[in-house]
């Protein structure tokens, strides 16, 4: 059987202020902080994960909030726009809510769908679109009813410095199907119900630069550990140089950079975020891998305190 990803597992981006990051994604967008941990390669920096109630694959955006980070430039070699889906009929609610927090919005359309387009507090591009696919959220927070809440990713818009090569990788390596094209974009679809629609501008983009307000990488789903090993082999056989399999505690990961400059990861659905916390307590305390536990006090002393809090409109 042909190896195909179901779609996006997670997207990881850079930020600066940890508390402002929590305020935006939990306080304004209403996502659940499902894990607070650290960058395993730079333990002085948080690694924060936001998603649905369970941190399901296809809902998870993660951040490295580093107060001293430079400001990045969105451009080629990056995820240019992160797309979230909301239930049909919910876009008006979100337009009013975001305006209430002083967030500038534009309405755009693509392939017959209407989008709310805006930036987060760091300048990261986000859009909301109504779709019936995918289960409705069961998480309600900060005045957002569950029937209006973000379900998870709709997909992403990939900014490539070599669009034809990026599109080739989506089809020939990851198993997406091309489903539409217009004068500006090509659209690709995977088999999943969320995180499954990827749009690529047909025009090659100028290089962006990493930093706060930009995406570091996009991760694609592998259903289990055995399939993950098959993915590593397939990526290598396709002419790329995947990393060794890396244990990220909540999933295993491999990485490779495709020819359009975008860093791709393939991540396993298991074991998930309840691996080291009870489901009802996800994200409530700092979780560390075993090798960092002996220096927990030192790590905690170097991190800014954060809290998930309900915001009032106008508090942006």
TrEMBL record:
The keyword Heme does not apply. Residues 7-131, 152-269 form the VOC domain. Coiled coil: none annotated. It comes from the Bacteria. One of its GO terms (molecular function) is dioxygenase activity. Keywords: Dioxygenase, Oxidoreductase. SUPFAM superfamilies: Glyoxalase/Bleomycin resistance protein/Dihydroxybiphenyl dioxygenase. InterPro entries: Extradiol_RC_dioxygenase, Glyas_Bleomycin-R_OHBP_Dase, Glyas_Fos-R_dOase_dom, VOC_core. This is Ring-cleaving dioxygenase. Pfam families: Glyoxalase. It comes from Paenibacillus woosongensis. PANTHER family: RING-CLEAVING DIOXYGENASE MHQE-RELATED.
């Amino acid at each position: 059987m042909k190896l195909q990803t179901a779609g996006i597992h997670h997207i990881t981006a850079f930020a600066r202020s940890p508390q402002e990051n929590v305020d935006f994604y939990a306080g304004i967008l209403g996502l659940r902080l499902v894990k607070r941990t650290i960058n395993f390669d730079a333990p002085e920096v948080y690694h924060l994960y936001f998603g649905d109630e369970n941190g399901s694959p296809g809902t998870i955006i993660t951040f490295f909030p580093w107060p001293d980070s430079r400001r990045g430039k969105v451009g080629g070699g990056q995820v240019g726009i992160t797309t979230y889906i909301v239930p049909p009929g919910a876009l008006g609610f979100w337009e009013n809510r975001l305006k209430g927090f002083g967030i500038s919005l534009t309405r755009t359309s693509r392939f017959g769908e209407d989008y709310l387009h805006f930036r987060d507090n760091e300048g990261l591009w986000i859009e909301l679109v109504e779709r019936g696919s995918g289960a409705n959220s069961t998480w309600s927070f900060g005045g957002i009813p569950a029937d209006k809440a973000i379900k998870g990713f709709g997909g992403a818009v990939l900014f490539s410095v070599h669009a034809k090569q990026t599109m080739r990788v989506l089809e020939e390596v990851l198993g997406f199907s091309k489903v539409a094209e217009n004068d500006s974009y090509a659209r690709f679809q995977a088999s999943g119900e969320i995180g499954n629609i990827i749009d690529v501008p047909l025009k090659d983009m100028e290089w962006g630069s990493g930093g706060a307000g930009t995406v570091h990488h996009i991760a694609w789903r592998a259903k289990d550990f055995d399939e993950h090993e098959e993915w590593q082999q397939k990526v290598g056989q396709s002419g790329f140089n995947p990393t060794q399999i890396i244990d990220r505690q909540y999933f295993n990961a491999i990485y490779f950079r495709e020819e359009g400059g975008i860093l791709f990861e393939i991540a396993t659905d298991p074991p998930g975020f309840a691996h080291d916390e009870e489901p009802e307590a996800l994200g409530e305390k700092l979780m560390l891998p075993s090798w960092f536990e002996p220096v927990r006090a030192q790590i905690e002393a170097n991190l800014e305190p954060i809290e998930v809090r309900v915001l009032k409109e106008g508090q942006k």
